[in-house]
Amino acid sequence: MKKVGLCSLVALLLGLTVLVAEIPAAGAPPAGAEAETPTLMVDGRLQELSSPLRWDKDSIIVPLEELAGYLAANFQWNEAEGTTWIQKYGRTIFFRLATGEIRKNSEPVSAPVPARLINGRFYVPLRFVAENLGTTVIWDGDARQVQIITGERHIPPERISSKTFDAVVAYTDQGNLWLLDGREPDALPKQQTDAGFVELVGWSFDGAWLAYKHASDEYAPAYLWVVGADGGRARQVDTEPVGDDQLWSPESNRIAYTVKQENIDDYIPTGTVKCAEISAEEIQVNTLVEEDVVMIPALAWHPDGESLAISLPRTKDQPPRLEQVDLAAERKVLYTLEEEAAPDLETLYPWALISLKWSPDGRYLAYHLRLNSASLTADVVETGVLNVENGQLINLNSGLRYPQWMSFSPDSAKLAYIAGIGRDVIHNKWLELADLASGRLTDHSQNSFADAQPKWLPGNPQELLFCRGPEAKTISDFYALPGVLLPGQRIYKLDYKGNSRAVTAGPPSTADYYPSPSPSGEEMLFLRLERYDQGSLYLQPVDTPEDAMEILRGLRGGPGYYGNYYPEWISVYWF
């Protein structure tokens, strides 16, 4: 075998006319379609085509060697056998000209139209080859354009529209931090880091500061940083690496967090909670809790910003409990998990209350109950609500341990949460609403659909946004998929009558995530993915999906743990 140039390939193929007959110079476009030659976009860049794309029935065809160049794929021709193949991502598509045989990794496959010679060039169906090689292909009928997404985009995300919006957006791209001020029509994204790995924490209550974690790489200890909304005054908050919870106060520029300490060959969690007050002049750090426990599993700011709820795990002598600690480090017990008898610590037992989230009025505290088994806790946890005023519990259906999947209504009367079992996010997950006064649960699921990411519209106790997509079986092999995990996932709105409808409307091969409504509830930002690891930021009025506008193109990130899409790729502060 040998690799040859385009001219050599043409000469060889011209000698094979006894094997494959030529067809007319151009195939016919689909019925009713305009006859313009389609253009080609690869990873956001318009390609200058040396040979035009062509129609063959309902398929677009392209010279195979040129397609290999667009995809940065390997391509070879076997003169003796009269065969050719293209290879990428460990996938090989093989063609035998004499018989029309096509194989993918040695398995016979069928193409929508046959490969053939046109004017001496070997044309193949573009979508068939590109998708079988692990890329994503989208047809934009309005633009008469084929878009290929390989997931290997080498340029940063680009601002597509000059449309203004009253928010600032932080986002990560391949581990780096960027900021975009939507209030300025000509403002370009500002890169904040160019090395290491960033994970977003979020914006302070007034939007003056963004907090984020920064590590030398994705698996190294992470340190807490803040940066101003204008991209200035970036500073490290603490010299110790931080744990899992970092939370801004709802009323001031204070951020609470847990820390880790260095062990023999690693960093391990501690029973320490700190609070840092951030100002332009200085960062003042105070220690609120120092406990001789393996870690503080969860914490949550009270709505008044003057205290925190903290979780203390089971020890040999004490059951799991919740305490409240104020800014002067004064503590009181909120709740102790009742046990009929001390559990056998050699078996399974409730270990800690996690995923803490306060209702806006401070009356209720939602939680998940974590077992001492990391594996079982990853599959399902009990969901509940503590009435802090009387110490009573409201037991809800089981779910996964994501605090983002619990959302109190603005009037504190309801809790929206995602119920279900199994760590795969793309099936067996459904939206439920708990009426906290009566304890009544209402199932708002749709058969054969999976729900995620509930978020109430600001100031509206009757309308809720959430994500919903057609269920899939498993994502154990999602890294091999070129497309999205849940094709057709959209953002839905649940109204006061209990009716749900989609309020976004993208191509069926895409999926929408992270609904971020404005304070008025009239518009929202969200992320639309065309691959499981790449997408765009969109802006639209909540109820008019036809007015959705692409703002940033080419954001890249990971699907998180079993498709949960956490940590978030974007963090939005609406002014």
Q: What do these coordinates show?
A:
Strand 32 (382-387) and strand 33 (392-395) form a beta hairpin. The chain contains four helices and 46 strands. It has 575 residues and is mainly β.
Portion of residues in beta strands equals over 45%
Briefly note the CATH topology name of one domain. Copper Amine Oxidase, Chain A, domain 1
Main pleated-sheet profile: 5 strands, antiparallel
CATH architecture of one domain: 2-Layer Sandwich
Give the low-pLDDT segments. 1-28, 476-480
Task: Report the strand count.
Answer: 46
List the helices and strands and how they pair.
Blueprint (H helix, E strand, L loop, with lengths): L5 H9 L24 E4 L2 E2 L7 E3 L2 E5 H8 L2 E5 L4 E6 L2 E6 L4 E4 L2 E2 L7 E3 L2 E5 H7 L3 E5 L4 E5 L8 E2 L7 E7 L2 E6 L8 E2 L5 E7 L5 E7 L7 E6 L6 E2 L5 E7 L5 E9 L4 E12 L4 E9 L7 E3 L5 E6 L8 E6 L4 E6 L13 E9 L5 E8 L2 H6 L2 E6 L4 E4 L10 E3 L5 E7 L8 E7 L5 E3 L5 E8 L7 E7 L19 E5 L5 E3 L8 E7 L5 E9 L2 E8 L7 E8 L13 E5 L1
